[in-house]
Amino acid sequence: MRQFVILFIIFFFGIKIQAQPTLTPQAQEGYNAYAELANDYMHALWGYRVELGKLNFKSLEYLNIAPLYRKANLKYEHTDFLETLTFNIDPESAYNRVFDIGENVPSQHQVPLNNAIQRIKKSMDSIADASVQIEKYISTRKYKKEENLETLFTLLNDCERYFETFRTANMSIISTLELARKYYQITSTTDEYLRHAEQLKSIIDPSRKILYALRKNCVADVEDARRDLDLAIELISEIEKDNLSRTIEGKSYEGVYVRYDFVLKLATDISAYGQEYTTANVDERRYRMQSPNYYYYNRRVLDKFNRVGRGLVLQYNHFVDSSQVRLIKMSEEPHWYKVRNINDTSLAPDEDPAEEVIDSTETVSALEGYAPNNLIFLLDVSQSMNTAEKLSLLKSSFKHLVSEMRPEDRVGIVIFSGAAKVVLSPTSSTEKELINRALENLKPSGKSDVESGLEKAYDVLTHHYLENGNNKIILATDGDFETLKRHRTLIERHKNEDKTLSVFYYSKEKNNSIGYRLRQFAEAGGGRYAYIQAENANEIIIEEAQKTQ
Question: What's the pLDDT score for residue 147?
């Protein structure tokens, strides 16, 4: 309670705090490189937890069948999640880069951070190696020769130890980054950026304590942390009540801006899940394969805390990226991996673990590992689009793309039927409800004016250009308009500025003449042309957001 009262006073009266020494840009880059690499490793760790968890439960199901009647085969395919899920550069270069940039960090922080990152990498390498061994063990059917899958469970138990080593190393990173934040004291809390940073931190800290308490399976500690979190939510709701009452129109805000409606919703959910845990009935079916604390840690609270669920730490780190004040990023929390062994299985032979284990439904986004997207949907909403094969399919396929998008991805929507109109300025995909509402509200009318649409879409894309991103216009149309040479000239000029154009042709029946003209647009724009039907729409549109970094 006391810490939040002090925080409240600081916000309103601007208490001055001496700042020695000053955080240099080079030191900030160093600290943040450690946090970013640790978080990338943690995101890859999540992938391994999902796949190893599925295999664990499938193996228990297999063991509950009498050996003479085991006809089903186990399946497991190793995935190098370090390669497929994370990093803006290759994993080895990302790892080496940290030590180079870390030279700018004071030695009292550099040494423990280096040691922790080395331990994290060693843990990840060990998990990946075990995963390769598991794939070989299963693909060669060696498990058929072991009645109790001894080799498999030895490897799974090894992975559990590697996960724990990762966790202890990450705790060292968290504590060292916290020491660094205190080492570089802020100059004045009247600064808006500093105020927002402290408010976000006042929510993240008790949320992290809830995660720690869940691992300890300590109801009292969860309740204590919840009280601190609820107080922080209450104070920030009061301080930011004007911002919370603002209507969100998807536009880009100038100056300091934090989406407190989204942040407070995440925090409120964490508090609610903590409350659910304290009253959980251990005899409930969903806890038979996972204890309540394991369930709420992995499947509820962590999703609101980590990148995988666009959680609190991601929101803080995005704020640091946009801050005009030098701040140090935070590290997330690793997923918890616990092996369910042969001797403690409670599944009966006729029970299906997939009904109980949410792990079996976890999936990895189709966009993970690709460049951040800055997509402008240029949509034909002329009267000729008013059929199920056109506008209705267009809406559903673009909604599917939005559902797969990550927090770093942005979407803008420009429509053309007559004069072009921006119905949604580039907006973070965290605003999925807002984006989907803009798509759903599209109504067909008028005639196509593709030239007006192209000009407007390129204006929006240029104004919101994303460095090192996938800057692309996706034109969706039935092609019921004239294509002129000046249109292709406009498209080619922007292609040379790394702004590409892909074209999707929506129609019940394919017209080769229209297809030829639309393909010319796509070729001029350095993008892709595709004829869209219900059976291929979702797969094709996802590929437009998969640009290699």
Answer: 87
